[in-house]
Amino acid sequence: MGTAPESQQVEDPPSFKFRWTIENFSRLNIKKLYSDIFYVGGYKWRVLIFPKGNNVDHLSIYLDVADSTTLPYGWSRYAQFALAVVNQIHSKYTIRKDTQHQFNSRESDWGFTSFMSLSELYDPSRGYLVNDTCVIEAEVVVRRVVDYW
Q1: Which SMART domains does this UniProt record tie to the protein (predicted)?
Q2: 93: enclosing H helix or E strand
Q3: What is the CATH number of the domain that holds 76?
Q4: Which end of the chain is more exposed for a tag (fewer CB within 10 A), N or C?
Q5: For the segment 66-103, what is each residue's pLDDT rounded down to a tens digit?
Q6: What residue numbers bound the domain in which 26 lies?
Q7: Verdict on whether the full-model pTM lies above 0.85
Q8: Within a domain: residue 36?
Q9: Distance (Å, whole) CA 137 – CA 33
Q10: How many CA atoms lie less than 13 Å away from 122 in the CB half-sphere?
Q11: Which segment of 8-12, 118-122, 129-133 scores lowest on mean pLDDT?
């Protein structure tokens, strides 16, 4: 069997794994916190967390289109992504959840309102908060982008 010419090979979609280390986590006295911006597929993303929960007794984590308010009318992008709270004692207990979403101006963030219980997160013996530091990971794959100019 012959091989396909270079021009016909399917490119892997752009992907990136972002690691966010948050120190003094239990002392965060704010409703929500944004990570630094990271780029996947040439687009700006960030992670949004509610350290004390988004009106629930769970940690809430979302993937957010960082520049959604300045994008042109009708913008849309589709991503598959995983969000994780890393277990710093036993990595096999890292909590990871996968989802996908068509992001647009009305739904510029997507994720999990009840990602994990606050009691589990804040219990130092469980390994998710070590030396009052929480580690969150986001793995993002951008599948396609639709812009209507």
Answers
A1: MATH
A2: none
A3: 2.60.210.10
A4: N
A5: 999 999 999 999 999 999 999 999 999 999 999 999 99
A6: 13-146
A7: yes
A8: yes
A9: 15
A10: 14
A11: 8-12
